[in-house]
Amino acid sequence: LQTVIFLLFGTISIFVKTNQEWVIDFGLDYFCINKFLIYFHWFWLGYIVLINKDKLIWLFKLKTIFILFALWIINCLYIDFFCPHDNHFLLGLTETPFFEMIKTISCLFFVLGAYSLVNIMLNKHILKPQQWIENLNQCSYGIYIFHHWILMFLFSTNNIFRKQITSIASAYSLKFPVIIFILVLTLSFLITKLFLKTKIGRFLI
Predict the structure, then answer these.
(1) Distance between CA atoms of 185 and 144, rounded to whole angstroms?
(2) What's 124's DSSP letter?
C-alpha cells in the first residue's frame, strides 16, 4: 500500500507539472494545492524509508551508491540529449509526461543515493554530527517552507527591486545563484529560529 500511494502521487505530480492549463481551470493554484500534489510523494518516500529502514540494508552499501548515482547520470544525459530544448526546458521544466517521468525517476535515484551516502559516512564516522548540523537539521522543515516564499517575493512583480535583481542575475549568471543560495538559506534559517521561539511556530514546524 505504501508503494502504491507513492506511485499514485508520483503519477499525479507528473500530470500536474505537464498540464498547467488543467491546474488553472480547476483552481489548483489556489492555496498552492498544486505544490502539495507535486511534492507530497517525496515526503511519503521519506516516510517509507523511515519505517522500512531495517529492511533497506542494501541501501547502505558502497556498491549501491555507485549504481544509484550512475543511473541518475544516465537519466540526466538522456533528458539532455533527447528532451526538446524549448523555453520550458531552460526553466527546468519538461512539457511531455514521458520526459517528466524520466526526470522524476532521475530525482529518485539521486535522493536515495544521497541518503545512502550520508548514512554510510555517519556509520563510518567520516561525518560526525556537530551542533551546527543539529541546529540546521531542527530548522530544515522551516527552511524548506520559507526559502520558497523568499524566492517568490524576490522575483515577484510586488518587489520594487525586481528589475535590479533580474539584471544582476543576468549579468552574473554563475555567481548570482551561489550568492542568492547563501542569502536565502540564511534568511530562511533566521526566520525559522524566530518561529521556533513561539508556540504556534513550534507546532507548525
Answers:
(1) 9
(2) T
